[in-house]
Amino acid sequence: MGLSILLRGTVQEKLNWAFNLYDINKDGYITKEEMLDIMKAIYDMMGKCTYPVLKEDTPRQHVETFFQKMDKNKDGVVTIDEFIESCQKDENIMRSMQLFENVI
């Protein structure tokens, strides 16, 4: 289902899918802990052979950057509305949402 959304879904569907990926406990909020768990998993999949070599605290730095950008009301969690609004304003994110549009 996720692959179908990434390949054929609307931008809104893709953003909802991405939000739900990070919202591990499905409570409607992304916490720093949830985001850190996902970031660590991504870095673990990339392995220790990346160039340049990633520092131990790189996942935590990415989480802090994410929250500075996305947590608009600074309450320590990111809602679906904050996530979608921030993503729609980010050219790089919007460009990445279109990467797979013509694959199939």
UniProtKB/TrEMBL annotation:
Compartments it resides in: Cell membrane; Cytoplasm; Peroxisome
The entry's keywords: Calcium, Cell membrane, Cytoplasm, Ion channel, Ion transport, Membrane, Metal-binding, Peroxisome, Phosphoprotein, Potassium, Potassium channel, Potassium transport, Repeat, Transport, Voltage-gated channel
One example GO MF annotation: potassium channel activity
One Pfam family recorded for the sequence: EF-hand_7
Top-rank taxon, per record: Eukaryota
Membrane topology designation: Peripheral membrane protein
An annotated GO BP: regulation of potassium ion transmembrane transport
SMART domains from the UniProt entry: EFh (SM00054)
Keyword Calcium carried by entry: yes
PROSITE patterns assigned: EF_HAND_1, EF_HAND_2
Gene Ontology CC annotation, any one: voltage-gated potassium channel complex
Family: Belongs to the recoverin family.
Name assigned to this protein: Kv channel-interacting protein 4
Organism: Bambusicola thoracicus (Chinese bamboo-partridge)
